[in-house]
Amino acid sequence: MNIRSMDVQKATSRLRTIADPIGHLLTETFHFLGLFAIGGATVWAAFLAFLKMVEAGHASIEDLLLLFIYLEIGSMVGIYFKTNHMPVRFLVYVGITALTRHLIGFVQHDVEPDMGVIYLSVATLIMAGAVFVIRYTSYNYPNRQDAAGETNTD
Questions:
Q1: What's the pTM value of the predicted model, to 2 decimals?
Q2: CA distance 88 to 74
Q3: Is the pLDDT reported for residue 112 higher than 80?
Q4: String of DSSP letters for 97-149
Q5: What's the CA gap between 134 and 129, in Å, rounded?
């Protein structure tokens, strides 16, 4: 190795010691801003949905499931904020709730249910199977952090 390449390596190392903390700070700042934006938008959307129910004077099962979706998204943001891990299982729960909400609306508003009911039911069953697989694998094959005693959010 010649002197010129050693100088380049030293300069690269010095640059990395300066750039890495700045990059980490910018990444963390972006995460925090994004989480606050998603959390704020979720609270805002849930509040507007609730006001719409109050104006209507009643809440349908679809309305309640929509509020549950907002609750799950809020929980997911909170878990990600605390642990810096995306709780994939919560995303699947949101999907199951959204499919159930759509299925209920489909059955209530269509006079003759067709194959759409079967498709939505099978999709919900597949999502439930995904939750089972996620829970099974996270319990039986914990990652290193889980084995060290931290809680698993998936």
A1: 0.72
A2: 14
A3: no
A4: HHHHHHHHHHHHH-SS--HHHHHHHHHHHHHHHHHHHHHHHHHHS--HHHHTT
A5: 9
